[in-house]
Each structure stands twice: as C-alpha cells, then as structure tokens.
Amino acid sequence: MPKNTPTEHRLSDDNAGVKIAAAQRPTASAIVDPVLECDNVDVFYGNFRAVTDVSMDFGINEITALIGPSGCGKSTLLRSLNRMNDLVDGARVTGRISFQGEDIYGPDVDAIEVRRRIGMVFQKPNPFPKSIYDNIAYGPRVTGMKPSSMDDLVEEALTKAALWDEVKDKLKQSAFGLSGGQQQRLCIARTIAVKPDIILMDEPCSALDPIATMRIEDLMVELKKDYTIVIVTHNMQQAARVADRTAFFTAHADDTTGNRTGVLVEYDTTTKIFEDPSDQRTEDYISGRFG
Amino acid sequence: MSVFAPISRQIGEGTIRGRARGGDTSPASILFLGLLWLSLLLAFAFLVTLIVTTVIEGSPRLNAMLLTEFPASRPEEAGARPAILGSMMVIGFTALMTLPLGIAAGVHLEEFSDRNNWWNRIVELNVQNLAAVPSIVYGLLTLGALSAIGVKDKNIVIAGATALSLLILPVIIIVTREALRGVPIEIRQGSLALGATPLQTLFRQTLPSAIPGIATGSILALSRALGEAAPLLILGALVFVSFDPNGLLSGYTTMPIQIFNWTGRPQDEFHILAAAASILLLVLLLAMNAIAIVIRNRYQKRW
Fold this sequence. Notes:
Chain A is α/β, with parallel strands linked by helices. Chain A has helices at residues 6-11, 14-24, 74-80, 111-117, 132-142, 150-160, 164-167, 180-193, 210-223, 236-242, 270-275, 280-286, and strands at 34-45, 48-59, 63-67, 91-99, 102-103, 118-121, 198-202, 228-232, 245-253, 260-269. In chain A, a hairpin with a 2-residue loop joins strand 4 and strand 5. In chain A, helix 5 crosses helix 6 (150-160) and helix 5 packs parallel to helix 8 (180-193). Chain A is globular. Chain A starts with 5 loop residues before the first helix and ends in a 5-residue tail after the last helix. Chain B is mainly alpha-helical. In chain B, helix 7 (157-181) crosses helix 9 (198-226). The longest helix of chain B is centred in the N-terminal third of the chain and has 32 residues, at 27-58. Chain B is globular, with a radius of gyration of 24 Å. Chains A and B meet through helix 4, helix 5 and helix 8 of A and helix 8 and helix 9 of B.
C-alpha cells in the first residue's frame, strides 16, 4: 500500500503524523465555508477501533457522499457526526468534530441539541406508528418549538420534502399506509421540521425502488439550497449523480494485529474522484475491481 | 439485506408448513404425527371432562344466591359473596402494587441498564429464576416479613395482595421487557435523531407501542394470581367470612379458598356449591384471558 496513509502516520509520532497527513492528503481544498469539521477522528467500540484518523471538512450547502466497501467505517463515522453513536454501549470518539467551530463532544455540549441541529435519515424508512401529521409534528413538539401554526409548519416540511401533494388529503391517516419511498420522504420531512442545519443520510435509498430512489435524489439536490447534506451510499452512481464532493473509505488491516479499521483514502470533488482519482485503491473501487 | 430478510422468512415458513402438512409420508413420521395428535386429544379430553363434570355438578347452585349470600353452615343458604368481593379486592391491590413497580423495573432493565454490567446480568438471571418459584414460597416470605415487623393479624387484604404481588412481579417484569423488545430499535433512533430526550422517546414512542403487549401479559399474570390459594392459606386467610372486606386491613377470603373450604366439607350440598363457585372462577379467568386476547388483536402493531 502507498506511503503516507493516515494509519501509518498514526503509528509513528502522533503530532508529526498529523501535520504530514494534513499537508499531503487531498483535502478537497476548495471548501469555502466548512460547517462541520473532523480533525483526526478515531471511533472506537470498546477496544475495537472502527475508524482511524479521519480529517475532513463538510462544506455548507453541499452534498458530501461517503463511499466505500462494507465495514470501512463510513456509517460509523456518519453516526459520530451527530452523536447517535453515543447510544451504542462502549462507543467513543477521539479527535475533534466541530460544528460551526464548536466541538460537538465538548463537556458542555448537550447531545440532544447536537441531534436537533444535525438530523439523521436512516437506511430503512422508520415512520412512527402515528398519523402522517403527528410524525411531522413530533420533532417540533418534543424539542419545545413554539411555531405560530403547527399546521403551517407541517405543510412547509412536507412541501420541502416533495410529499405535500401526495398526502395533503390524508394527514390524519397512519404513516404506515404510505409506500416505502413516501415513508422515506416523510422521514426526511420529519427531520426538516425541527429545522436542522445538517441532514445526515445513512444509505437512504437502499430499501427503495429506482423510481423512489430518483425522487429522493432530486429531493436531495433541491434540499441542499437550505441544508448541508452528508450521505453514506453503497451506490456509486448515486454519489456521482448527487454529491458535490466524495470521500472514499476503505478497511485497512493492521500489519501486526490484523484488526481491520476504516480509513479515509481520498476526499475530493466528485468529478475528480470518479474521473481522475489520485489513489490506486479509489480507482480500483470505482472501476469495480474490488469492494 | 433488510430488503430481503422478510421475504425469505416468508418463503421459509411456507416450506416448513408445507412439509409438516404431508410432504413427508414415511411410516415414522406418520406414527409421530399420530402421537402428536394423541397427546393433543388427551389434554383436550381432560379439559373437557373437567369442565363438563364441574358444570353438571355445579349447575343446580349456579344462581343469584351464589353471588349475593354469605357463607353459612346450612348449604342451601350459603353463597360466595365475600369470596368474590375478596378476590376482586386482593387482585385490585395486587395490580396497583405490581404494575407500576414491574413495568418500571422492566423499562429500566430493557432501556436504560448497561447489559454488560455483571450486576445487571445477575438481576436479569434472577428475575427469570423468580418467575419459576412455587407460589407457596412467596406466601412464606410474606409471612416471615410480616412477623419480622411485628404484624400479628396476617389475614389482611394488604398481606394477601403483597404475597400475590411478589408472585407475579417477575412475570410482569419479563412481559414488559418482551413487549419493549418488540418495538423496533429504528423507532427509538428516529425519535432520538430528531432531538428528543431518552425520556421523551420512552414515554411518547417506546412505551405506548409496548402497552398492548404489557397489558396482555399483565392480565394473564393477574389471572394466575386470581386462581392462587396456597400463599393466602399460609397467611391464614379465613375460610369462613360473614362480612364484606372493606379496606386494606380488613379480613378477607377469596374464591379459591372458599372452594377449597367447601370441598373439604362432608355434605354433598357443599360440594355442589364448590363446583358452582369453580364455574364462576373459570368464567372470570376466561373473561380476563379474553380481554387480553382482544387487547392483543386490537392494538397489535405490525412494523
């Protein structure tokens, strides 16, 4: 494997390694205004290091895709970005993840508030066993938002998620009556309703058919005007279609222990990653030679 | 993965059922099938015999007097009124004491405790063990505890309710945990990802979704307590009560104890009375189970 990967730096002198890594890694330098920054982030489950030394910034109002083979730690990293990993026993994060300059793992930071500002859409649509209306109104209610009109808030969220026209006549009906794609857009609308700054999406289309997938992708492009989106996807075409920037991760086996850990291989504009990747492993992956 | 899992499970069930229905026709499996049917038939025959003989024997006294009269030395004047009221009162207080405690314990173990902690694992294991302890042991435990704190008259409603609470508490904890486990993790994650606190998630999502399961299990547990006589006899429950129970410290009797008492009398008329009271108890138990089934079917959620 090539020299100067983050892992190897980690194994040598920590501080020196960080500097070299920062200088030599392709860092998608054109990010003008990063809203979320990761600096030397490691994620552990107990003693197992699932993600090693990730440093990357997420640009505001951009879609950033995290791609890579299974087990490369991209979902783990995504869940660290809004502290959803806190809910897993034994999970911990080292390094620094800052949202608008503030360390989200700082001692005075409330994880609940982090999750409100950085929302998440999951792989499988997970509507609550409630009406469509109550699914949307749930977030604003529990977070203590006092909108002048809850009806307007619900309509706005559903409209932004391109679902309003399909459900406006059945707001009081159970969300379970919707199709999979509609349910996923409902989950996106639910996330929008609490007015987050960032929306994290963990393979949001993997349970959907191609038409529903296309609608979600169109929606993401539409939503990036107002939100910053980070998406984990197994579908490389999807990353190529929607993402402004793409980060390629892979699982790297430790030379001595054989433990596999996720590392960031290459992070750049989507065009660069898919047309002219700098790293051989990225090229192998996107051309379908492994993973 | 998740897309295909439910489908393949359906296919799996279909094939297994298909095989059991008659795909396999070897003599050994036919013999085995016959034995299975025989065991079912035996169990069913016992049940039917029991119910039919009880109904035939008890029907002459299955009338309003059974509900309204107090026990008497003359069987034709006797009824089970204090026993019925006593059963209701004891079960009512049992429910009041057990449900909050058992549900809270189940919620804690399932939602908040750290499963890798050895202390929690011991608690979990012992809750399972306690559910299998014979009921009389709980009677003895209550008796001992009451003696230790110097209560002389142990034949009081609160004492009986305590013994029955101890008996069904582990069951309530277990059914609460089972019901909570049935709520998909995605629901909790979805709620938390919106910025809800763990307590909001519990009270607005997880617990409401688990209520049907908890209610069903709790009713079944209470119906078990309703049929118990042993722990109450140990506590000295009265067998001859000529007054209505009127509070926590009141003396009482319950239906199983009344039945036990009447069965032990030499006169045939009392045996008829016992049979009639048994039918009443059976009807009550069946009604409770029916309510549990209705709740389960009506509010069951399909994810």
